[in-house]
Amino acid sequence: MTSSIAATSNETGFIRRLLRSPSGLIGASGVLLIFAIALLAPLIAPYDPILQETANRLAPPGALHLLGTDAFGRDILSRLIYGARPTMALLLFVILIMAPLGITIGVFAGYFGGYIESILMRLTDIVMSFPRLLLAFAFVAIIGPGLINGALALALTSWPAYARQARVETTALRRSDYLAAAEMVGIRGIRLLWGHVLPLVLPSAIIRLALDMSGMILAAAGLGFLGLGVRPPTAEWGTMVAGGTEVIFDQWWVAAAPGFAILIASLAFNLLADGLRDVMDPRND
Amino acid sequence: MPQKQGLSLGENVDSRQLRGRRELRLVWRLASWLTSMAITLLGLAVVTFAMTRLAPLDPALQLVGDHASASTYAAARVELGLDQPLPVQFVRYLQAALSGNLGQSIATGQPIVKDIARTFPATIELATVAIILGAFLGVSLGILAAVKPGSWVDGLIRLVALIGYSVPIFWLGLLMLLLFYAKLRWAPGPGRLDVVFQYTIPSRTGFALIDTWLSGKAGAFRDAIAHLALPATVLAFYSLAGISRLTRSLILAEMGQEYALTASAKGAAIHRVIFVHILPNIAGALITVIALSYASLLEGAVLTETVFAWPGIGRYLTVAMFAGDMPAILGGTLVVGASFVILNTLTDLLVSKSKPGDRL
After folding, report:
1. Cα of A128 to nearest chain B Cα, Å
2. pLDDT tens digits for B88-145?
3. Is B271 helix (H, G, I), strand (E, B) or coil?
4. What was the pLDDT predicted at A252?
5. 8 Å CB contact of B55 and A249
6. What's the CA gap between A248 and A254, in Å, rounded?
7. What is the C-alpha to C-alpha distance for residues A194 and A104, in angstroms, rounded to an integer?
8. Which residues of A touch B299 (CB under 8 A)?
9. Cα–Cα dist B242/B288, whole Å
């Protein structure tokens, strides 16, 4: 009982300390803001993101279209707002595939040890030294573009870091009194791993996720830029940059605006990660 | 230093026996390194092979076309070995790849190995110039930031690094082209050489800098540098971000160590402490991060080369992706991926060798 109370007060303290660091505060608010924009896109966007005003193509930023229009006469601001959706959805998909996969492999390796551990960790090492971005691009190019395929490709090449971390922590736990006590009262197998090991491995995995997300945003944008993202006419930031490439010398804002959105989103996650690092490791500052 | 003491003790006991053991250890490490690299490369081959089987495209159908008769189709399947069980197909795939046969590109009609030999030097040239620039600037900025942590210099460098790894590199490249090529007219246009030189300079090595140098035409050499400057700077900025940050945190971590504190306490200036005492100790970690950064420049070529119309393997891959040229995509991925893996594992080996404790 006391330990769980201590844990909760620790957690609120953790969040308070995170928000006290400037980068943590800016990053956390930025991330929340982007998720809010993605969720509330239909309420915020001034126009329908796929509505084409053919008479008003490539309009410069002005009162009617705050960020101008693209080559199809679509409002860029509305497309930016809607563009947050596929990116955030992809992040969620990646998290949902990558974290369970990595953590499961790591916990199994750490808990069972022996041959299982050697084989699983060997596999982890192999995948870890793969060129992640390149394989993800090739995978999507071959399987076909789309949100799920992109998320799958990124998740399947990025789980090893989670496996390694989970294994180290599980190995440390294996010899603990805590697990010995649980086993003594008859908790074994999957129930033990699920109820007693997983909750202790999860926090560091969550922090790791925050650190990884900015790279994922850039990778997702890269997929879109190469034409491997969501299918047109759905608004997506990387695809929008690619669309603006053809007119970069004359109507530069068409490519500049979505790229800036990518920069801001990835910056927000990086700042959040910085804040987390500051809180966890005071030596950094 | 404690290591030195250990060494002299060892020499006293029996230096010959020690040297023998040292050689044995070196051989053992080399062998385990080669094995782990071979296993990783094999894994990479499995992945690319699996992708060919996962693809919705039927290579036999692609070869004979939609209107072919069933018997022609079946013959094509046999010819491509698609009637064999998967393990057999994989072994054949591996044999072909090892003997330098990655198949034919559907788009260019050339053997893929030939295409890659033509395009890869351009990628290596760009990435190498970029990493030299990025490593030099990154380490310098990292040192500068670590001299006075918390100062405005440190803050500025942190900000630069933060932007460096948050920015989508293809977008930054576009903006730089817009600014330095279209607006300011400082940089030449996309590509590696002006049209004037493109066909008059004999391609001996595939590296534009070396070829133009060998040609003896100063104008051509300058032109090659001018074309390289913008893309190399953009890539250098990207690698600078990670390198400067790591240099800073490594130095700061070492500064708290007793040996650095002792040196400071004895009156050594901070520059001396950093350059003489700390840098040798963090060299291994720095080499690792620089090599990783170099490897990621190679794989990131897919994104950057498209923007600068740089005729390297990245652009080759992008073009293949748009054309649905599956053999080219997989062949290119395998070659770039293998270079990535070799570079990574080679770094492991180098770094474990440069650890002071292992240098005995």
Report:
1. 9
2. 888 888 888 888 778 778 777 788 888 888 889 989 999 999 999 999 999 999 999 9
3. helix
4. 84
5. no
6. 7
7. 10
8. 131-134
9. 12
Q: Which residues, at least 6 apart from A116, have a Cβ–Cβ distance to it below 8 Å?
A: A108, A109
Q: What are phi and psi of A191, to 5 degrees?
A: -65, -40
Cα separation of B124 and B294, whole Å?
10
CA distance B38 to A150: 28
pTM: 0.85
**Residue A103 near residue A201, CB atoms below 8 Å:** yes
Q: Is the pLDDT of residue A186 over 50?
A: yes
Q: Return contacts of A70-73, CB within 8 angstroms, 24+ apart.
A: A70/A240, A70/A243, A70/A244, A70/A254, A71/A243, A71/A246, A71/A247, A71/A254, A72/A233
How many Å apart are CA B112 and CA B298, to the nearest integer? 18
Q: Name which residue leads in pLDDT, A31 or A74.
A: A31
Contacts A130 to B, Cβ<8 Å: 40, 43-44, 47, 337, 340-341
What pLDDT score does B359 carry? 39
Return the structure tokens found at B328. Answer: 């080219």
- In the A/B pair of chains, how many CB contacts fall below 8 A? 138
The H or E element that residue B77 is part of is helix B70-79
Q: Which two tokens stand for residue B260?
A: 């650095």
pLDDT, averaged across chain B? 81
Q: Which two structure tokens, joined as six digits, stand for A151? A: 């998320």
Q: What sign results for the dihedral spanned by CA atoms A255, A257, A262, A263?
A: positive
In this predicted structure, the answer to whether residue B246 has a pLDDT above a threshold of 80 is yes
Instruction: List, in order, residues 6 or more apart from B286 with CB less than 8 Å away.
Output: B139, B243, B246, B247, B250
Q: CA of A170, closest CA in chain B: separation in Å?
A: 25
ipTM for this model: 0.86
Q: Using an 8 Å Cβ cutoff, are B95 and B42 in contact?
A: no
Range of weakest confidence among A165-179, B146-160, B202-216? B202-216
Burial B263-289 (b: 16+ CB within 10 A, else e): beeeeeeeeebbeebbbebbebbbebb
pLDDT band (50, 70, 90) for residue A104: very high
Cα separation, B89 vs B81, in Å, equals: 7
More confident residue, B307 or B63: B307
